[in-house]
Amino acid sequence: MLKGILIVQSSEQIEESFGINLPAWYSELINNPSEYNIGGVQELYLRKDPEWLIENNKIYVANVNDISDIDNGILIGSIKRLLQYGSKQRIIKHRKLYFDKWVKSERFIIGSDGGEEDYFIKLSDIDPLIYVLDLETHESKLKFKSINEYIDYANSFKNGSC
Question: Read out DSSP for 31-97?
Fold first, then answer.
């Protein structure tokens, strides 16, 4: 550490942004990725950068009743929202369901395949279990029973074996 400069770990930045506690094994992983053979194409599957992780898990701090990101309150914004998403009540209902499904069950997105699947952990899991969410069907299931199994899977794409 440089004298007089405080270095904030990635895990601390995320925890402070959301008021959550990441599992110790996951904090270690994102704070010291070089110890876990993370690199290359796998970066997509196991994100380490706090900015990406915060952006993709912002539901933890979202106001589900605020739809200003979709409808800015002016006529054009309201028409666009209505054509793309429907009524305000429908959007808010969907966001509340999403909040209940993700935040209350402590799901935290850690990566993606870049298309149809997101990978997540549950903050309350002591063991490093990795789950997958199919973005088309919205179904999720346990996919990997260890972080090493997940890393090997992601690295297999880098090596061209999948």
Answer: HSGGGGT--GGGGGTS---HHHHHHHTGGGG--TT--TTT--SSHHHHHHHHHHT--HHHHHHHHHH
* Least trusted range by pLDDT, from 4-8, 40-44, 136-140, 148-152: 4-8
Q: Which uninterrupted H or E stretch holds 148?
A: helix 147-158
Query: What does the alpha-carbon distance between residue 43 and residue 119 come to, in Å, rounded to a whole number?
Result: 12
The pTM (predicted TM-score) of the whole model is: 0.78
Q: Which residue type is seen at 126?
A: I
pLDDT digits (tens, 9 = 90+) for 54-98: 999 988 888 888 888 777 778 887 787 788 778 888 888 888 888
Burial of residue 106 (CB within 10 Å: 0-12, 13-18, 19+) is: middle
Return contacts of 118-123, CB within 8 angstroms, 24+ apart.
119/45, 119/46, 119/143, 119/150, 121/23, 121/26, 123/20, 123/21, 123/22, 123/23
Tell me the torsion sign for CA atoms 30, 32, 38, 40.
Answer: positive
Q: How far apart are CA 121 and CA 131, in angstroms?
A: 6
Dmax (CA) for the chain in angstroms is: 56
